[in-house]
Amino acid sequence: MRNLTKQTSAGFAVNEADKCVYYRHGGGEGVILCLYVDDILIFGTNLEVINEVKSFLSQNFDMKDLGVADVILNIKLIRGENGITLLQSHYVEKILNRFGYIDSKPSPTPYDPSLLLRKNKRITRNQLEYSQIIGSLMYLASATRPDISFAIKATSGYVFTLGGGAVSWRSCKQTILTRSTMEAELTALDTATVEAKWLRDLLMDLPIVEKPVPAILINCDNQTSILERTHLCKLDCWSQSMEILGESSRKLTKDLGV
């Protein structure tokens, strides 16, 4: 609450789509603050306005200026002529060293489905350590390495780009049971549409973004799902449960220009 009061008193407004994003714009200059716990990323139209904000923050909070962003939340930012690349190779090595797997050799995963599993009669592995390993890998998969995840059931995945670069991406196991490829694709489309709405709301609330915000294009490679979304095909008897989900996605598409 103290953060909110101080920022708003300095002319910052809170982004309605993400309460951890503050922005200030005027006189052709703009600055955006992105907060995550005790980390802050500052984006500005020029260095002068960025230094002004850093001076304001240091006067009101105990703050350590780390300079140009290099590593944030264990994600390394590599700047190049064609944009910014996100890397986590250092985080991978950190995980391997922490849990003693730095010298381990690759092994085929997942196991052969015909493999006969027997009850473990050896010493039970530390469950806390196991959970920490899984959690570390899940963060890696959700941030920059979705390719390390193996699909054990239907998954939803999407990538949104802005200005030629990826700005939002996700690959996750679907939480509902689907009975056909079309239903799985519709579920993925619904997930992507919800994210598209949030991205559009985020951009709509940033004054430095050109208005009106254009419609967000979502591509899908499943023809049956595309036909169903446009009402050119009819759901069969066991797919009626997907109608509510599909209608929700269609409504967002119509109302928000997705």
TrEMBL record:
Boundaries of every Reverse transcriptase Ty1/copia-type domain copy: 10-111
InterPro entries: DNA/RNA_pol_sf, RVT_2
Family annotation (PANTHER family): GAG-POL-RELATED RETROTRANSPOSON, INTEGRASE CATALYTIC DOMAIN-CONTAINING PROTEIN
Protein name: Retrotransposon protein, putative, Ty1-copia subclass
